[in-house]
């Protein structure tokens, strides 16, 4: 069965691509999300949990910027210039995965004190939580479309690529 470039990237070079492109960003994002829930519930904005969140957010944003730049120039540009996309699901999966740079970048800018530094801590926390939510949305859209057969949204018969299958 054909797979999207997103899934092909994660499946290749096991386990390293899975660790580099999925595990590290997701572990950092989940750390931030869990800390965010704690901070929103307790309103303890100056303790160890906030420090862990700040460190994870800074690392996540910088790390994912590197991932974005690497994949943009080694995958997106060649796939686009070569007309090698496998269909709309393929473009959506890769596009939404790379869109994660926006919320993770925003989180890093807040955590590094470069965005909204003159605002109240509660206001920064609200924007921070919004970026966490946005990251969860784009990451899940990428995963869902990444798991689809890329021919599914093209109108082509996906079963035609699998001889011997009855449908």
TrEMBL record:
The keyword Nucleotide-binding does not apply. InterPro entries: DUF6803. Keywords: Membrane, Transmembrane, Transmembrane helix. Signal peptide: none annotated. The chain crosses the membrane at residues 20-41, 62-85, 91-115, 127-148. This is Permease. It comes from Pleomorphomonas diazotrophica.
């Amino acid at each position: 069965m054909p797979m999207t470039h997103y899934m092909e990237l994660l499946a290749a070079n096991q386990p390293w691509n899975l660790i580099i492109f999925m595990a590290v960003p997701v572990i950092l994002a989940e750390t931030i999300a869990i800390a965010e829930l704690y901070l929103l519930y307790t309103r303890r904005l100056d303790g160890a949990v906030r420090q862990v969140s700040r460190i994870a957010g800074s690392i996540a944003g910088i790390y994912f910027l590197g991932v974005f730049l690497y994949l943009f120039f080694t995958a997106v540009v060649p796939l686009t210039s070569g007309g090698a996309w496998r269909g709309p699901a393929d473009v959506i999966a890769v596009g939404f995965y790379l869109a994660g740079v926006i919320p993770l970048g925003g989180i890093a800018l807040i955590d590094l004190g470069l965005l909204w530094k003159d605002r109240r801590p509660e206001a920064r926390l609200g924007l921070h939580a919004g970026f966490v939510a946005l990251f969860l949305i784009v990451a899940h859209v990428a995963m869902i479309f990444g798991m689809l057969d890329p021919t599914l949204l093209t109108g082509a018969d996906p079963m035609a690529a699998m001889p011997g299958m009855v449908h």
